[in-house]
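User: Okay, second chain of the day. Same drill as before: sequence in, structure tokens out.
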Amino acid sequence: MSQWLTHTFKLLHCRTYTLEARALAQLLVKSGASQRSVGGVIQKMTSMMGAKVDHCMSQQMVACTVLEGGVAAQIQLAHKITQMKSEMALRIGSTTHRHINYESRHVTMRVSEYENPPHSHINAVAPIPKMCLIGVDTSVDHTSETQVAGWKQRMSNLSEICAISPLAQHSQQTFNADNFVLKLKGMNGDHAEDQKKPST
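Assistant: Same drill. Structure tokens below.
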């Protein structure tokens, strides 16, 4: 017990936050903790377990970690779309809050689920439909032209992020907007008149 009480969790390795520390920060933010309080929450958690941490993560570092997680999610999404051999469908939802237009974009596709991630190549099961978030953006209006421009911008961003990622360089596969369109088999939206042009 005395050894546990004197244990120190190392958040830093060679002056860089470990992957585990970054994942913990992302999980706390996702669970509702403010970026400002994450460092203190980690210290409090370890203190309640009778241990301590070697550093307090700053609000700026937490913000960077969240951004890194967002980029990683975009790379993962682009990789899944590139690997996918079946069809997919798109969905866009629009709303207005305090006179600002917001649009959320999703893609529904069949992806593989793994019962045991460390041995995913062994335990892969049949692909199942999943809805994945592409992003939430602001727009000047709800017209079909604006929505099409938003889709093009999102696809361009995915292509750029994927092209410079180590995953794409290792697998020799890049995200291509033309291939994305070829796999598209359906589209759904919440404003019928606005969706007629993008879906044709």
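Residues 17 and 66 are 13 Å apart (CA to CA).

User: Thanks, on to the next one.
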